[in-house]
Amino acid sequence: GEDGRPVLTFKMSSSVLDAGMKIAQGEKVKDTEKAFAEQSKLASSMAFSRVLMSSSTARSSAVADFGKQIAARLALTLEGVKAASEIERSHVMAVEAVESSIKKNAESEEELAGALEFALENPLVSSSLAYDLIPKDIPTDEIEVINSAASTSALAMRILNEAYVCSFNEDKAKYEKCLDLFVSSVVNACDLSNQNPKDNERKRIANAAASSLPHQLGAAPFLTPSSLNLVSSLCDIDEVVKKFSTKTPSQTIAEAAAARTAKAAAEKRATAALLILRDVAFQRDALRGSAVDCAVAIASGRLPASAQIEDKALKLVMNVIFPKNVDCSDKVISSAAKELEFATRFAIENHEKIKKANESSARKKEKHGYNSKSALAPQSDEEKQALDRVRKPVVLVMALAVRRPEIIKAIMENGCRDGADVLAKAIKTNMPKLARAAATKHGAAKIAVQVADMASEKEAPLLICFLDNLVTAADKSVPSPELIDACQEIQKARLDADGKPDIRYIMPVVSGIQRVELLKELPVFVKGSDEILKTALHRMSERLGRYAMIFRDEPDPSENTLRGMSSCEQMVYLHQLDFHAIGIPQKRYLDVIRVCLEDDEVFNDRVVQAALDYISGKFLEGESLPLAYMRTI
C-alpha cells in the first residue's frame, strides 16, 4: 500500500464457487465437492457459535450489539446449517417449545406447524431466538456483565427485524414463523420455571423474558393472531397455583416460601400477558379483534387460566377495553357473542350425556328418599361441571347486557335452543343479577317492555324469568305502578293458545296489584294449571307473611287500598268461588282447594283454621256456606 504496509486481499477460488453453486441449486456433485460442502457447513456452524457466544459475553455494549447484528444476518443466511454443540440446547428448546405450543393451541395449529418446520430447517435461527432463554454454564462473576451488556431479548429482536426485512423479497411468512418461534420459546421458558420452582436460574430467565416481552412485542414490526394466542397461554397457570397453594405436613418453611414466590412470579407473568393484549387492542387497529378475542376467551374461561387471572381479564375487558371507544366496545360485544355461541354448542353437544347422568342420579336419590328442592341446582356431577363451564361466558355477556340491553336477545335466543338445557339453567341461575342491575341502570318498567319486545314466543320462559326477577321477595316495597302497568301491557300484547292475554306475564307483580283487582283475575288463575295457580298464590302473598292468618278489612270501605292477598284471604276467596258463574267444573273447583291444602307449608293448620273461622263468622251474619266448606273441615 501507499504507507508501505502489505495489502491483504481475498480471492474466491472458481472451483469453490462452482461447488457452492451446484449444492445451492441441488445439482449432483462429486464426493470431493460434497465433502467440501459438509466441511464448509461445519466451519460455518462453529464460526456462528463463536460469534454468538462472544456477543453474549462482551463487556462493551457496542461490541455486543455489533456481534448480534452479525449473528442475526448469518442465522438467516446459513439455511440448513446445523447448530454447533455449544448452542444445540437452544435449538432443542425452541423445537420443544413449538411442539408444546401446538398441543396447547389447537386454533393456531396450522401456523405453528409451519413454525416448527421452519425451526427444523433453520437450526441457527431457532438457536438464536431461544439462546437467551436457557441456563448457561457461565461463572457467576460474569452474569452481571452479561446482564448489563444487553437486554434479555436483544438477539431475538435482531433476528425478528432481519426476518422482517428478508420477508419483503423472499418468503413472506418467514417473519411470522420467527415471531411464533420466539413467543413459543418465551412461553416454554415460563412453563419450565413453573415446573421447577427451586431452579433460581430458570426463574430469573422466565421473569426477565416475561417482563421484557411487552416491550419487545410493542417494538415488533407487526404481530399475528397466532402470536397473541401464544401470549395468552402464559395465563395457563391454574394447576401451578393450585399446586403451590396446597400445603403438605412434610413441607419445610423454605419450601413453602419458594412455593409462594413461584406462585407470585407465575401470576406476574400472566398479568404481563394481559398487558400485552391491552396494548395490542389499543395500539394496533388491525389486530384489535384478535387481542379482544383472547382477553374475552380468558375472562370467559375458554382459554385456561387461574381464577385470579380470569378475574383480572374480566376487569380488563369490562373496565378498560370496553369504555375506550366505540370500536373497542363493538369488538368486546362481538367476542362475547362468540364465547356465548361456544358455550351453547358445548351445552348441546353434552345434552344427552348430562341427561343420562341426571336420570341415573335421580334414581339413586329416589332410592334413598332424597329429592332436591331447588330446580336450578345441578342434579349430577356431570351437570355441575357443565354449569361451571358455561357460567362464565353467561356472566360476561350479562355484564355487557347491562350496558347494551339489546344483547339480552342473544342470551335468551341461545338459552332456548334445542338441547341447550344446561345453558338455560345457568342463565336462570344468574338472571337475578342481570335483572336487578338492568332495572337499576335503565328503570324496571322501561327494561321490562324493551326485553319483551325483543323476545319471541319460544323465548317466553326466559322472558318470564327475567320479569320475575325484576321483583324479588327481598324488596320491602311493592312493585311500582309503572312496572305493574308495563307487565299488564306485555300481557295484553302476548296472547295464549286460546287468544286471551297470557296470565303468566302479570304474576311477577301481583303482590302490588289491588286486592279487588286480584279477585277479578283469580278465576283466570284457577282455570290455569296447578303450577300456575300455586305460583300466582305465592306471589300474591310474598310480602304479607305477617298477615298470613288474617283476613284484612279495608281501612276505608269507600276506597280500595289493600294490595296483594294473604294466605288466609286466598283460602276464603277460593272457597267462595262461584264455579258455575266462571265456567269451571265442580271437580276443578274442589281440586283447587285440594291443591292448596296439600301445600301444608303455606296453608298450614293455623291458616286454614283462620279462613274457616272467617267463613263461619260470615255464615252467622247470614251468608251461605260455600260448597267446599264441609270438605275442608
Rounded to an integer, what's the Rg over CA atoms?
37 Å
Largest sheet: none
Which structural class is indicated by helix and strand composition?
A: mainly alpha
Distance between the termini: 131 Å
> What's the overall geometry?
elongated
Structural notes for this entry:
The protein is mostly helical. Helix 6 packs across helix 9, helix 18 packs parallel to helix 20 and helix 26 packs across helix 29. The radius of gyration is 37 Å and the shape is elongated. The chain starts with 13 loop residues before the first helix and ends with a helix. About 2% of the residues have low confidence.
Give a brief outline of the structure:
With 633 residues, the protein is mainly alpha-helical.
Offer a few descriptive terms:
single chain; 633 residues; mainly alpha
Write the layout of secondary structure elements.
Layout: H1 14-25, H2 31-57, H3 61-77, H4 88-104, H5 109-121, H6 123-130, H7 140-149, H8 154-166, H9 174-195, H10 200-219, H11 225-232, H12 238-245, H13 253-283, H14 288-299, H15 307-321, H16 326-349, H17 351-367, H18 381-403, H19 408-415, H20 421-442, H21 444-454, H22 460-470, H23 481-493, H24 515-527, H25 530-541, H26 567-575, H27 579-582, H28 586-598, H29 605-620, H30 629-632
Helix pairs in contact: 1-2, 2-3, 3-6, 3-8, 4-5, 4-6, 4-9, 5-6, 5-9, 6-8, 6-9, 8-9, 9-10, 9-11, 10-13, 11-14, 12-13, 13-14, 13-15, 14-15, 14-16, 16-18, 16-19, 17-18, 18-20, 19-20, 20-21, 20-22, 21-22, 21-23, 26-29
